[in-house]
Amino acid sequence: MQNQAQSNSVSVQEIKPLDKVLQQIAEHKGCGTSSGGAKASCGSSSGQGDMAPEVWEKVKNHPCYSEEAHHHYARMHVAVAPACNIQCNYCNRKYDCANESRPGVVSEKLTPEQASRKVLAVASTIPQMTVLGIAGPGDPLANPAKTFKTFELIYKAAPDIKLCLSTNGLALPDHIEAIKSFNVDHVTITINMVDPEVGQHIYPWIFWNHKRITGIEASRILTERQMQGLEMLTEAGILCKVNSVMIPGINDHHLVEVNRAVKSRGAFLHNIMPLISAPEHGTVFGLSGQRGPSAQELKALQDSCEGEMNMMRHCRQCRADAVGLLGEDRSSEFSTEKVMEMDIQYDAEGRAAYQEKVEQERLATAAAKEAELANLVEEFSDLKILVAVATKGHGRINEHFGHAQEFQIYELSTEGSKFVGHRRVDLYCQGGYGEEDTLPTVIRAINDCVAVFVAKIGGCPKDELRAAGIDPVDKYAHEFIEQSAVRYFKEYLGKVKSGEVVHLARGDADLRQGAYIAA
User: Fold this and answer.
1) Residue 306 Cα distances to 41, 242, 313, angstroms
2) Which pLDDT value is given to residue 40?
3) pTM score over 0.90
């Protein structure tokens, strides 16, 4: 197995030329500072100066709570909680595919003891792994003994790892004290409605007080328990992220109301995710033909809620046994069989030293963006564009177009760059050859973008992208994403102002090919 610590490390020599810039933003520490009216995203849009120090310590290296941290830090989930106390029309925990990234999916279920050993194995191999979450495959709080035994073992063996759990919230009010006692300071609640009339179309039943309850009554109990649990978490000082699944025609407009409700009860972050409803997954929604939202519909809803509270846009809807950076899954490297054969040497000091190098890389990324933003200070325009980025992580443009399985999407304006989402795509390059049938699907996924930034790209896809009005950009290969994006926008804006190109706005429903054309 390749040593991840060696392959991902960044040397002090690489960062030293940026010392003067780093000094100017020495207090930045990662999440973002104001610049030209824009703020770098922290999963929220908040930076270190926008929150209490104790809150900052909880989010600064948490890849789910900090958009910036997700480029640099890894997470893992352990599947110790098989049972669930509600049924959702979008869930089927029986389905498993090694290549499927979807909540509820696992390759193997673990005992607390197996999970603890796996965590130590992953943390020793991936030193930038900072977060351990329990998210299923059922509900952690429907399996409280297994969940809290796992937390107890990991808290004792690896106290430097942050502990999280994800829950539907039905049993949450009963376990607040246990959550506090094991220093679990991040909890995610999936809240899809605050109106039982809406909820009855999402939840067929709940199991509550030793009996199954259906219909509107089930949704009424669920939403009351969710709101009570959220309020109790806030009172206890535990950070809470709310996940909501966007289901067109059922709760898409209602999620604005959900957003207001969770904000008023102290939620730190709101993550609106698209419904996954492929028929082969065997879910009720999948088999009934319920569609998921388009990327444009999802972005529009997230935009409409952003003024109310912090929005998370970098969620990957992870498996319940995911391992690695968001957007990657290394769980196959850590099967129970492989973990049992590993010679695990947990080195907390070595992990801390490696993470310090990660912080230096993170500071360099922020410094590069801040330096580039200074060139936009005198620019004034209402123009906004989207660009797609092929990246393996670490805040750099470091992926070949043909090897990309997702593109990160940034919105650019005179206020700077803003991460707004990601688009999964089919792999274009397979076995060293481009799959021509796949290219149109990749183009459709990003055809509201003016440009796509890549480390490398072949001649054929270059021509096809240009024909679709998407500028293939490889001149920023292996450079920082946001620095390069701001630089590109300044050049693009200059071309628009000079008349060299004509910018064509794209509608959400009927995207026109050709984001810009030569004048």
Assistant:
1) 12, 14, 11
2) 36
3) no
